[in-house]
Structures are given as C-alpha cells and as structure tokens.
Amino acid sequence: MILMIDNYDSFTFNLVQYLGELGEELMVKRNDEITISEIEQLNPQFLMISPGPCSPNEAGISMEAIEYFAGKIPIFGVCLGHQSIAQVFGGDVIRAERLMHGKTSEINHNGETIFKNMENPFTATRYHSLIVKNETLPDCLEVTAWTDENEIMAIRHKSLPIEGVQFHPESIMTSFGKDLLKNFIDQYKLVEKS
Question: Please, which domain of life does this record's source organism belong to (predicted)?
Fold first, then answer.
C-alpha cells in the first residue's frame, strides 16, 4: 500500500489516479490528519509526499515523516514533497528566479532508477515558485535531473530509497510521467523495511 500525504493540493488526486491505474493500493491522508505513530500502524510499503501550495515549513507532517521514515520505507516526493526532502537533509529552498505555473520544460536526467528507459531529455510540466538551491544540496543527495538552466529537477539520496521530482509527473503535458512513477515502484518494491 502507498500512503500519500496530501499537502492540500488539487494535483494529489491526479497522482493517486495514475498510481491506481498502475494497480497500486493507495491511502490518502491530509498533512494535518495523521501522526507518525498512525503511519507506523498503517505500515505502508511506500510513502509519497504530494505537491502543495506552500513551503516545506508549512507542509504539516511532511518533513517530520520524511525524517522519521528515511531508511525505513521508500519515500517519493513531488514538487513540495521534493523540496521537503531537500530541506530535511539540509538543502535550502528558495524563491525561483522564474515562476513556473503550468509551463513545460525540457528535463535532462542521468537515466538511472526513476529515469530508467526514458527519453532524454523529456518534456515535463512545472508548477512552482520555489526551488532547491544548487549550492546548498548536501553531500548525501545527488541531482538526477536538471533543466538547461541548471535548475534542480530531481534528487536522490545516495544511500537511502528516497527520491524527489520538482516537476509534475501526473500532468497530462509531462511525457512519460506514468513510466516514471512505475519506475519508482519497480525500483524500490524489493527494498526491505527496517
């Protein structure tokens, strides 16, 4: 079962629909409607952190859940979820130079894990005014996707099953978004819970 932490975002249910189409069982909980102990009791196979209209500091339980479950269950963050992952591990989330609301960008990637067998570059839809600052990315995280302007578009933890994407894989204007989500599930399905 995938537990989706919903950061009060309309895109959450598009993500849920895509994952459901991939045959995954899902549970959605708002970021202020669940506790760490309740998440433990649910014992999800994956934890996903949704997009949202705020910064990681206003994302309810999102950052606490990432910090607590890092290394215990695979974690995937989208947009705000991605920013929350970066911030938990010491990166800075700052106002982007360019506001991207419903705009597409060409995304370059390293072809590994979630980007396995995907076109390079591919087109993705972006809805964000905040971004992870390159110079502050901690050593434990690596950049796995970027724009031509060198904006961070995806990160992966170097030793834990944690990945995040700044763009929206569930957008109809994102090429291969469903493939990316399937890659995440396939990549980390066999990870042993600790």
Answer: Bacteria
